[in-house]
Specification:
By secondary structure, the chain is an all-alpha fold. It contains four helices and no strands.
């Protein structure tokens, strides 16, 4: 039973880490492109403001992955909840960033 819970927690934590890295990478890519294209500097500044939050999500996902190395089931369950939550938040923020890029507010 311990091995199964540990395996599931590890998979969820890795998926949460991948989602957080994807969100941070997307923001970095958008900021980089906005810095090079004329007329998009304001949009790039808006996305750069979200980079610390994306970094926090990556850090949280790394902590969740680190928690999966414990041999106790309660710690694995905590890692499962943390990794899953971070993955869901990262995916939602990535979708919101894509929506902002597709439909920028007036003034950009």
């Amino acid at each position: 039973m311990d091995t199964v819970v540990d395996l599931i927690a590890t998979i969820v934590a890795v998926l949460g880490l991948l989602a957080a890295l994807g969100y941070a990478g997307y923001l970095g890519m958008i900021s980089s492109v906005a810095a090079r294209r004329p007329g998009t500097a304001d949009y790039g500044r808006g996305e750069k403001k979200r980079l610390p939050a994306a970094g926090g999500l990556v850090l949280g996902a790394l902590v969740a992955l680190l928690l999966t190395s414990a041999a106790a089931v309660p710690v694995d369950l905590l890692a499962l909840l943390a990794g899953g939550g971070i993955g869901l938040v990262s995916a939602a923020q990535l979708q919101a960033a894509r929506r902002r890029l597709a439909n920028p507010p007036r003034g950009y």
